[in-house]
Design a protein that fits this description.
This protein has five helices and four strands. By secondary structure, it is of the alpha+beta class. The strands form two sheets. A two-stranded parallel ribbon has the order 1-2. The protein has a two-stranded antiparallel sheet with strand order 3-4.
Length: about 140
């Protein structure tokens, strides 16, 4: 198959191609338009330290017992998506935290709860001197 003749891959094109394959379940997440912000590094950014607690039953519940799809993006149209240097996009981090917290805390994790928790507004400090803050609003 051919990709669109653009410099960047269009998320709608990815979703359409996945849907055409008629999978039982798929997840498409775009954490795009990351901008380099070196003030996060100066403030001592954390590394990825999410606990991974393997629980086969929880993973089976999420990945084998669902049908349909989840489509999410790190910000609404017109908004930037931010990153934290070496640890990646703030939305990716919110999603992984929500997923891992749900795998640990919920007796029966479900995608709706995971996505609701991952899609809360994310405050972004854009100026480390004045602490000017904007909101990145994920969507799913």
């Amino acid at each position: 198959e051919h990709t669109p003749k653009k410099k960047f891959l269009d998320f709608d094109w990815v979703i359409t191609n996945l849907q055409e394959k008629k999978p039982r379940f798929f997840i498409a997440i775009a954490d795009a338009c990351n901008n380099f912000l070196d003030f996060f590094a100066k403030k001592g950014g954390k590394t990825r330290d999410f606990p991974i607690i393997p629980n086969q039953e929880h993973y089976q519940t999420l990945f084998l017992n669902y049908q349909g799809y989840i489509i999410a993006s790190s910000s609404k149209p017109g908004q930037k998506s931010w990153n934290r240097n070496s640890i990646g996009g703030v939305y990716t981090q919110a999603f992984l935290k929500s997923l891992n917290d749900s795998l640990i805390a919920l007796p029966q994790p479900d995608w709706e709860t995971i996505m609701i928790r991952a899609n809360v507004p994310i405050p972004i400090v854009t100026d480390s001197q004045s602490y000017r803050t904007i909101i990145q609003q994920p969507q799913f």
